[in-house]
Amino acid sequence: MTELVLTVDEAAARLRVSRWTLYDLIRSNQLRTIKIGRRRLVPADALAECLDQLSEVAA
C-alpha cells in the first residue's frame, strides 16, 4: 500500500532535496501540507502537484 501522507523528511528524500528546500516550498505555497497536531505532513499527491507546477514555471 502506498502512503497517503509523508513526513517532511520522507518528502524531501522523495524529491531529493534538503529539508530546508522543502520548507521553502511550503512557505512559498508551492507545496501543499496538512497539520495533524504539531506534525506537518505532506500528502503524497501534493508532490506530483508541486512538480507539475514547477515544470510549468520552468517551461
Automatic annotation (TrEMBL):
<feature type="domain" description="Helix-turn-helix">
    <location>
        <begin position="5"/>
        <end position="53"/>
    </location>
</feature>
<dbReference type="Pfam" id="PF12728">
    <property type="entry name" value="HTH_17"/>
</dbReference>
<dbReference type="InterPro" id="IPR010093">
    <property type="entry name" value="SinI_DNA-bd"/>
</dbReference>
<dbReference type="InterPro" id="IPR041657">
    <property type="entry name" value="HTH_17"/>
</dbReference>
<protein>
    <recommendedName>
        <fullName>Helix-turn-helix domain-containing protein</fullName>
    </recommendedName>
</protein>
<dbReference type="InterPro" id="IPR009061">
    <property type="entry name" value="DNA-bd_dom_put_sf"/>
</dbReference>
